[in-house]
Amino acid sequence: MKLITNPLEPKRKQQIGEIVRFGIVGGVATLIQYGVYLLMLYAVSPTLSNTIGYAVSFLFNFVASTRYTFKVKTNARHGAGFALSHLINYGLQIVMLHLFMALGFSEKLAPVPMFCVCVPINFLLVRFFLKR
């Protein structure tokens, strides 16, 4: 007796795997960014602290996302797409950072809700640019 399998099942497992791997890589990248941000707050403004943290995190994130999360070869097109998605995400982060500070969050805590908004959007952007 032959079992009937769903032809979409392998694709669904692949998508779930990407989400799990993105969570791991994104979690580490977010911790890197937040750690650098907190350190830099002692010397510079929140905007510059976030920019420096984002840049450091970006380098780790590119390598880990292409090799581990989405398992694609790094090339100029992927690099450009990844950079564009992160440029969009960076702009969103700056807006969200200032919004949450304006809403009363401290400079040290404002990135927490910012990450909650920006990380899922970043997943969709990166996936779009790396997988198309």
Largest sheet: none
> Could you name the ranges where pLDDT drops below 50 across 5 or more consecutive residues?
none
User: Could you give the count of β-strands?
Assistant: 0
Distance between the termini: 39 Å
Query: What structural class results from the helix and strand content?
Result: mainly alpha
Radius of gyration using CA atoms only: 17 Å
Fraction of residues in β-strands: under 5%
SS field, number of helical segments:
4
What would you say this structure looks like, in words?
It contains four helices and no strands. The protein is an all-alpha fold. The model has no long low-confidence stretch (mean pLDDT 87). The chain starts with 8 loop residues before the first helix and ends with a helix.
Helix and strand layout, with pairings?
Elements: H1 9-40, H2 46-69, H3 76-102, H4 111-131
Which properties best describe this structure?
mainly alpha; 4 helices; 79% helix; elongated
Short structural description:
The protein is mainly α. Helices cover 79% and strands 0% of the residues.
